[in-house]
Amino acid sequence: MSSQYPEGGPPSGAPGGKTSLGLDSNLGAMLCYIANIVCCLGVVLSVVFLITEKENRFVKFHALQSLFLFGVYAALAIVVQIIGLVLRIAIGLLLSGLVTWGLWCTVTLIVVGFWIWAGIKAYRGQWYKLPGIGDLAFKTVNK
After folding, report:
1. What is the pLDDT of the chain when averaged over all its residues?
2. How far is 127 from 45, CA to CA, in rounded Å?
3. CB–CB of 48/41 below 8 Å?
4. Distances in whole angstroms, Cα of residue 52 to Cα of each of 45, 56, 57, 141
5. 19 by DSSP, 3-state: which?
6. Which end of the chain is more exposed for a tag (fewer CB within 10 A), N or C?
7. Taking a C-beta distance cutoff of 8 angstroms, is the pair 32, 50 a contact?
8. Residues 30, 120 contacting (CB under 8 angstroms)
9. pLDDT digit string (tens) for 113-127?
10. CA angle 60, 62, 63 (to 5 degrees)
11. Is there a contact between 12 and 44 (Cβ–Cβ < 8 Å)?
């Protein structure tokens, strides 16, 4: 779902400027998502942007939304491990391992799909809100 703002976003956070690291705003926002594919680098970059960005709400929004998405991913990973443990007790090692592996692959593919999709939207300069966490990130950045 898109925000109530036109393509450029709100005036003080419009993409097109530079980040505190000297990157274009849309590139910095995209890296917050896409860099998560490389060993959680997006989490580090998102934290850096949240700390250093004073004016650019566009980058802060995408950094915060990326962190929230990573938090959801971590929570789902814990849930999958708990399900695997319960299944191991109930049905045995081999079958529970297959089910857990299947769940893990499904969750990972979905989250990586969200990272790529949100990264593309951020690179295009859109204030794209992911379902569930986008509104929270938007309200946090714009208060």
Report:
1. 87
2. 19
3. no
4. 10, 10, 11, 14
5. coil
6. C
7. no
8. yes
9. 999 999 999 999 999
10. 60
11. no
The tokens for 41 are 């680098």
Q: Is the pLDDT of residue 135 over 70?
A: yes
Instruction: Say if residue 46 is exposed, middle or buried (CB neighbours under 10 Å; 0-12, 13-18, 19+).
Output: buried
User: Which tokens belong to 86?
Assistant: 């319960």
| Residue 129 CA from chain centroid, whole number | 10
- Amino acid found at 59: V
Question: The tokens of 52 are what?
Answer: 């250093």
Q: Taking residues 124-138, what's their average pLDDT? A: 93
| pLDDT at residue 15, as a whole number | 65
Q: Which two tokens stand for residue 107?
A: 């969750």
pLDDT of 87 higher than 80:
yes
Task: Write down the H helix ranges in the chain.
Answer: 25-34, 41-52, 57-91, 93-123, 134-141
* Per-residue pLDDT at 11 exceeds 60: no
Structure tokens at 79: 């849930």
State what percent of residues in the chain have pLDDT above 90: 66
Separation CA 111–CA 34 (nearest Å): 11
Residue type present at position 132 = G
